[in-house]
């Protein structure tokens, strides 16, 4: 593996051991550290060619789950197969068939782009013409050909991320884990990076990605939301957004009234969920019919809304709503 932990595995990917279209199959997977349950009976599947978004707040269990799926951390309970291999019984075979990249850039900065790729090709058992051919393929895929002789230390952020990705896939893994891969990268580089992800998925690679960028999550075929170690929602982005209960209303007030309006609405029983979104508030009502009463309530509190109207929910709205409900449960 590369881009976030230095390599584990020595063989090039030769295809799924069991060609059943499932790249990842997780059943009741749990991990305990003493009395603390970090991951609590998580189950999901990822198919070949699927981009699977794994979302959750910091400390929710995302990284622990990924470490188990990469064969680095042993599960306490449950089962998981990655690329046809059991993560508990065959962790080395799992690591041979996956690529991994994290937000922490950890390639060798004193080496050039090509030297890094040659190094990781050797670690994964590629040699001779096959290694050279594969190196040229990932250089071209990542738009790195013209930068092959540049020291990694001197690459701009976007190209550094592409190099980390190229190193993670040089051995042709069937499954790719991306843990916050675009953190700190500029918007244009993020867009280009996601184009690479889509290309790999189209070619059959299964991609499991974590991200805090909701615009990136929209590119995933399936999303799963984990909170306090438990999977609380799963489905395509469009399905999750249409599944949001109630009517979502955006409230705009004068800047000085934003915090008072937030506090007031949090005490109003008609507003089930209230969250600040930039310079406005999003509130969830049972239906839009309750909107006039809430507007009158704010006026009684001395707050005159500039605008109150129902809106279509975003993934961020869904994320906030689901986490809020779990926190109240």
Give a quick set of tags describing it.
alpha/beta, elongated, 329 residues, single chain, disordered N terminus, 4-stranded antiparallel β-sheet
| Percent helix | 25-40%
The proportion of residues in beta strands is 25-35%
Structural class by SSE content: alpha/beta
Number of strands: 14
Distance between the termini: 39 Å
Q: List unreliable stretches of 5+ residues.
A: 1-19
Rg over alpha carbons: 23 Å
The helix-strand sequence is EEEHEEHEHHHEHEHEEHEHEEHEH
- If helices are DSSP runs of H or I spanning 4 or more residues, what is the number of helices? 11
Shape: elongated
What does the largest sheet look like?
Answer: 6 strands, mixed
Strand order of the largest sheet: 6-7-8-3-9-10
What is the mean predicted local confidence, pLDDT?
89
Summarize the structure.
This protein has 329 residues and is an alpha/beta fold.
Overview of the molecule:
- Mean pLDDT is 89; it is low at 1-19.
- It contains 11 helices and 14 strands.
- It has helices spanning 62-69, 91-96, 113-123, 128-141, 157-169, 187-202, 214-217, 237-242, 258-266, 291-300, 315-328, and strands spanning 22-33, 36-47, 51-55, 77-82, 85-86, 98-102, 175-179, 206-210, 222-227, 230-235, 247-252, 273-277, 280-285, 307-310.
- Helix 3 crosses helix 4 (128-141) and helix 3 (113-123) packs parallel to helix 5.
- The two termini are 39 Å apart.
- The longest helix has 16 residues, at 187-202.
């Amino acid at each position: 593996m590369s881009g976030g932990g230095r390599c584990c595995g020595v063989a090039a990917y030769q295809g799924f051991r069991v060609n059943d279209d499932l790249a990842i199959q997780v059943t009741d997977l749990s991990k305990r550290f003493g009395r603390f349950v970090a991951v609590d009976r998580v189950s999901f599947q990822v198919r070949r060619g699927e981009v699977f978004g794994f979302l959750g707040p910091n400390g929710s269990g995302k990284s622990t789950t990924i470490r188990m799926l990469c064969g680095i951390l042993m599960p306490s309970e449950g089962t998981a197969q990655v690329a046809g291999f059991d993560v508990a019984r065959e962790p080395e075979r799992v690591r041979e068939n996956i690529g991994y990249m994290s937000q922490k850039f950890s390639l060798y900065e004193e080496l050039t782009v090509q030297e890094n790729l040659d190094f990781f090709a050797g670690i994964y058992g590629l040699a001779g013409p096959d290694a050279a051919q594969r190196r040229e393929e990932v250089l071209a895929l990542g738009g790195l050909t013209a930068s092959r002789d540049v020291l990694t230390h001197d690459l701009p952020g976007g190209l550094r991320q592409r190099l980390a990705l190229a190193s993670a896939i040089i051995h042709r893994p069937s499954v790719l884990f991306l843990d916050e891969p675009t953190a700190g990268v500029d918007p244009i580089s993020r867009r280009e990076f996601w184009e690479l992800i889509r290309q790999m998925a189209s070619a059959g690679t299964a991609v499991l990605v974590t991200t805090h960028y909701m615009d990136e999550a929209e590119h995933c075929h399936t999303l799963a939301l984990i909170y306090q170690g438990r999977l609380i929602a799963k489905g395509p982005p469009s399905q999750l957004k249409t599944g949001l209960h109630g009517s979502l209303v955006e409230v705009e007030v004068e800047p000085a009234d934003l915090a008072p309006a937030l506090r007031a609405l949090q005490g109003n029983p008609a507003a089930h969920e209230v969250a600040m979104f930039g310079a406005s508030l999003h509130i969830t009502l049972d239906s839009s019919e309750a909107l006039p009463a809430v507007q009158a309530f704010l006026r009684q509190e001395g707050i005159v809304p500039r605008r109150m109207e129902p809106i279509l929910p975003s993934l961020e709205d869904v994320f906030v709503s689901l986490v809020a409900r779990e926190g109240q449960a």
